[in-house]
Please model this.
Amino acid sequence: MTWKVAVGRFWTESHSFSPLLTSRQMFECGLLAKGQDLFQLRDTASEMGGFLSILDSAGVEIIPTLAAQSICGGPIEGPLWQSIRSSLLRRLEEALPVDGVLLSLHGATLAEGEDDCCGDLLAATRQLVGPDVPVIATLDMHANPTRRMVSSATALIAYKTYPHLDFRDRGGTGWADPAADAGSRGPARDGSQPVTPVHWIRY
Model:
């Protein structure tokens, strides 16, 4: 049996005090790749490079959705955020059913009208794939994990190093072949129930 896993990247760090909205031009200067164009990240040191490497080695069928990244800035322009969101989710929906979803996110991203872009994207992904499909996301260590992010994802994997030297390594931990025996961990497919320790701080 060949497993089918969807991958996507939505990465920018937002600053709510910045007067400069993050625009399409800023994403185009970074990366805005749809469908098969996402595979240009295959041999990079990015989280997506790690995703693709481990999935390739496991013989998984990879479904590329969207890769969008920009330099840091203010909130994303509202229509642009909706366009990126709908493009990624539409490609995911067209590929259903899938056996897993791997998303490369920043975790501190906001847009006009949405203060938790990553949480919204994870929640929408969960709604599409259902409660039992692994949804794994990598996050920057400067992420702001929200209840919506934690409740929607099977696992959230943060970078460990600063400067960030472990993008690819952390991406590579995002998936263990669920068809393997019990010696390998297939997220949420080995009968285990993940537990996320969280302490919410009020400030």
